[in-house]
Amino acid sequence: MATANAKQELKSVETINARASTGQDATLTQQGEIGKALSVLLSDVFALYIKTKNYHWHMHGTHFRDYHLLLEEQATQLFAMTDPMAERARKIGQPTIRSLEQMVQQKRLASSEAEDLTAEQMLEELHADNQALAAFMRTTHTLTSDGNDVATTSLLEEWIDQAEERAWFLGKTVGK
Q: Which InterPro entries match (predicted)?
């Protein structure tokens, strides 16, 4: 029994090595769809960045300093992913966003111009937006994985973790 399993495993390894030596399973596919998904995702990230900075600038109340610093940290993290995201689209031969108008047209997250939100309402909105962003990224992850785009898939895994952490911090701050 053990010998049969070892032989089957060896055959499997040989098959994988043979496919790899001919470049099979190594082709990146669905670049157009992946590029479009990255462009939309980048628009969402910029929208969330602006909303986070908006609330950072307009934060008030008892825990002002703590919330102000938390949102600055989160905005910095969001902005840090924009260049790698756009450059990844370019590396796979796809365009990325070219204008503010294009970003506004593509984004899925709502903007906010509200002037009367409490600190808790701001944090609750950002909590929900970060959860939505993580969900959008998971959908994109499925696409990149199916398209054999290992590099983008890997980046998305890190960004999903960051979005979930931001949502977790915001949720725990407002008692969710």
A: DPS_DNA-bd (IPR002177), Ferritin-like (IPR012347), Ferritin-like_SF (IPR009078), Ferritin_DPS_dom (IPR008331)
- Mean pLDDT rounded to a whole number for the chain: 91
* Contact status, residue 97 vs residue 85, Cβ threshold 8 Å: no
| Nearest residue to 102 via CA among 163, 36, 54 | 36
For residue 4, count CB atoms less than 10 angstroms from its CB and return exposed for 0-12, middle for 13-18, buried for 19 or more: exposed
Which fold would CATH assign to domain 1-175? Ferritin (1.20.1260)
Kindly report, residue by residue over 117-159, the tens digit of the pLDDT. Answer: 999 999 999 999 999 999 999 999 999 999 999 999 999 999 9
- Does residue 11 surpass a pLDDT of 70? no
Which DSSP category does 23 fall into?
A: T
Look up residue 75 and give its two tokens.
Answer: 């905005």
How far is residue 145's CA from residue 149's CA, in Å, rounded to a whole number?
Answer: 6
